[in-house]
TrEMBL record:
A GO MF term: haptoglobin binding
GO cellular component: blood microparticle; haptoglobin-hemoglobin complex; hemoglobin complex
Superkingdom field: Eukaryota
Protein name as annotated: Hemoglobin subunit alpha
Length: 183
């Protein structure tokens, strides 16, 4: 963890000032507006603004977790273990989206906290980057034979696996360079 003592103190000092409900809804509304592709994971939502009832409910869930994590800065990996597994194996959220959400948290805090100083901004940025990295931890874990657990079924990712070979062929065939060379 790259957080300094000062970063940790700044993060802890901001906790009591954040309203998890209001910030959480605002964060999700910003994510849906700025990165509309993230809506595909929430197709059941009828209103993607901060006033949407499901945006409010899920916003609170997400922001509570982010705030709670500040109590576990020295053991963030184990704190996020189950949540990482859930996003990787059950929800199958592309981890690139964690960074998008982090950007929206920063914007929302800057908008809402009067003392969001450059130092506080830096501490939150570092924390959210670490958070996103560790939330993606389970995506990197494979079993010893190189397979990845997907909905209870092990999908082979090693080079001799049929899926991998087929994928390599597809990549080669659909590569513009190869097609250009073929004509
Ligand atoms: C980076 C910060 C994030 C945090 C802290 C977070 C936190 C959570 C939590 C606590 C839950 C509930 C888990 C449970 O019920 O056991 C959840 C569910 C979920 N998350 Fe995340 N999440 C994050 C990012 C994302 C992103 C970026 C997406 C997609 C763009 C996403 C999609 C989902 C979905 C689809 C669910 C299930 C919602 C439902 O059941 O209604 N998450 N998340």
């Amino acid at each position: 963890m790259v957080l300094s003592k000062t970063d940790k103190a700044l993060l802890s000092s901001s906790v009591g000032k954040i309203q998890a409900q209001a910030t959480g809804s605002d964060v999700l509304a910003r994510m849906f507006a700025s990165f509309p592709q993230t809506k595909v994971y929430f197709v059941g939502f009828s209103d993607y603004t901060a006033k949407g009832p499901r945006v409010q409910k899920h916003g609170l869930t997400v922001m509570t977790k982010i705030i709670e994590g500040i109590q576990y800065l020295d053991s963030l990996r184990s704190f996020l273990d189950a949540l990482s597994a859930k996003h990787a194996h059950e929800l199958m959220v592309d981890p690139v989206n964690f960074g998008f959400l982090g950007e929206c948290v920063l914007s929302s805090l800057a908008y809402q906290l009067p003392d969001f100083s450059p130092e506080m901004h830096c501490a939150w940025d570092k924390y959210l980057c670490e958070f996103a990295y560790l939330l993606a931890e389970k995506y990197r874990q494979t079993s010893t034979d190189g397979s990845f657990r997907k909905n209870g079924i092990f999908v082979s990712l090693n080079c001799s696996g049929n899926n991998a070979s087929q994928h390599a062929l597809n990549l080669l065939f659909f590569s513009p360079l190869v097609r250009f060379a073929a004509v």
